[in-house]
């Protein structure tokens, strides 16, 4: 277990809000007494109705620990109680109840040479890792593989590409790469030399990507998984 920081309940004021695509909302929050996070950690966002009914969900931190604001990227799910509110209703100036940072296992401090694979919104914590690696000049220590059906369904696609991530789109050609899941020989250079792997995405994606890594030579006990399941 890593000696990761942990924060209690606090509040965050939305300072910036934009919609990079139809289904995504990016929130930039000023957090009261913010505890510095490690890349890979997440926050719980709790919404409260006037009758005190609450709903809370986890969201990974996308920002570099050095960023004065906390950045979250939320994918709006059909019928999604919390993601729908953040996407459709939340606005600049709103104050959200937050708890975090949380998580001591799925964190990357920049020390261990690693490969990180994310599917769709599962790339969000990987973006925090990549931003840290970029700032500290540690890009050789973190290789990123990102999967999505289309470019528009991949949060931070252009930024990840700038950091040298391998992007595999399964329903759209990208540059000279024909739409397909990643092939083992495409992954091999990213896995080669990695002492640890991070896998993040939906439950189905996590088991698929874990298997893919194992088949490409990654030791099972070196794979750390974060699943974006329901957190109710
Ligand atoms: C540690 C952690 C980190 C997370 N980080 C992020 C993040 O950075 N960005 C992000 O967008 N999401 C993230 N999630 C997922 C997030 O917590 C919520 O599960 C998601 O936003 C759906 O909540 P909702 O209230 O909108 O949907 P709900 O009202 O709970 O559900 C609406 C519908 O979507 C289905 N559903 C619920 N959750 C998911 C899911 N994760 N994937 C697919 N279908 C689902 C339900 O079965 C239901 O049919 C994270 C989850 C965890 C556990």
Q: What features would you highlight for this structure?
A:
232 residues, alpha/beta, Elongation Factor Tu (Ef-tu), domain 3, Rossmann fold, 2 domains, 5-stranded parallel sheet, binds flavin-adenine dinucleotide
Describe this structure in words.
This protein is α/β, with parallel strands linked by helices and 232 residues long. It has 5 helices and 11 strands. The protein has helices spanning 81-88, 124-136, 157-162, 184-191, 203-215, and strands at 9-18, 24-31, 42-48, 54-60, 70-75, 95-102, 114-119, 142-148, 166-169, 196-201, 223-227. It has a 6-stranded antiparallel beta sheet with strand order 4-3-6-1-2-5, covered by helices on one side. It has a 5-stranded parallel beta sheet with strand order 9-8-7-10-11, sandwiched between helices. Strand 1 (9-18) and strand 2 form a beta hairpin. The protein is globular and about 55 Å long. The model has no long low-confidence stretch (mean pLDDT 95). Residues 42, 57-60, 73-75, 77, 79-84, 121, 124, 202, 226, 228-231 line the site of flavin-adenine dinucleotide (FAD). Residues 42, 57-60, 73-75, 77, 79-84, 121, 124, 202, 226, 228-231 line the site of flavin-adenine dinucleotide.
């Amino acid at each position: 277990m890593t000696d990761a920081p942990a924060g209690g309940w606090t509040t965050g004021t939305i300072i910036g809000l934009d919609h990079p695509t139809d289904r995504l909302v990016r929130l930039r929050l000023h957090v009261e007494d913010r505890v510095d996070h490690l890349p890979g950690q997440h926050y719980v966002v709790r919404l409260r109705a006037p009758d005190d009914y609450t709903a809370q969900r986890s969201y990974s931190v996308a920002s570099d620990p050095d960023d004065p604001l906390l950045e979250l990227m939320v994918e709006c799910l059909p019928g999604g109680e919390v993601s729908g509110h953040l996407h459709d209703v939340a606005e600049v100036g709103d104050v959200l109840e937050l708890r975090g940072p949380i998580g001591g296992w799925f964190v990357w401090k920049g020390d261990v040479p690693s490969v990180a694979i994310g599917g769709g919104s599962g790339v969000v914590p990987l973006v925090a890792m990549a931003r840290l690696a970029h700032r500290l000049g540690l890009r050789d220590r973190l290789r990123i593989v990102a999967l999505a059906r289309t470019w528009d369904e991949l949060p931070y696609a252009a930024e990840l590409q700038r950091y040298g991530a391998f992007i595999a789109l399964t329903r759209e050609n990208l540059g000279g790469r024909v739409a397909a899941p990643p092939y083992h020989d495409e992954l091999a250079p990213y896995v080669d030399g990695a002492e640890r792997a991070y896998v993040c995405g939906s439950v189905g994606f996590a088991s698929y990507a874990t298997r893919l890594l194992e088949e490409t030579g990654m030791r099972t006990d070196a794979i750390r998984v974060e699943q974006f399941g329901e957190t109710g």
